[in-house]
Amino acid sequence: MLNINPKMLPRLDEIETDLLARRARAEQEGWLGEIEGIDLTLTFLRQKREESKRLARIAPVSLGMPGLRSAESDR
Predict the structure, then answer these.
(1) Which of 49, 61, 67, 72 lies 20 to 30 Å from 25, alpha-carbon distance?
(2) Does 49 reside within a domain?
(3) Terminal CA-CA length for the chain
(4) Does a structural domain hold residue 42?
């Protein structure tokens, strides 16, 4: 599963713009299979963008640093 770094969101916008241009060309040429593939890719891209934005809003949780237990606490 691919996780997108929120810093890469502008790149996803560029990819979406390119895909939309390719889709327009496919419509002009009547390439129905290509249109279907591009639509599927656009769906996945948009889902990843929304997931990445959602994860960026969630603050990381500090779990602390694990430590060694003392010999007395084992008894």
Answers:
(1) 49
(2) yes
(3) 44
(4) yes
User: So what's the pLDDT on residue 74?
Assistant: 58
Q: For the chain, how many structural domains are there in total?
A: 1
Confidence of residue 39 (pLDDT cuts 50, 70, 90): very high
Please tell me the distance from the alpha carbon of residue 15 to that of residue 12, in angstroms, as a whole number. Answer: 5
Q: At what angle do helices 32-57 and 9-29 cross, to 10 degrees?
A: 160
pLDDT at 52: 87
Residue-level pLDDT at 54: 87
37, 23 contact by CB (below 8 A): no
Whether 69 maps to a domain, the answer reads: no
Mean pLDDT of 4-28: 93
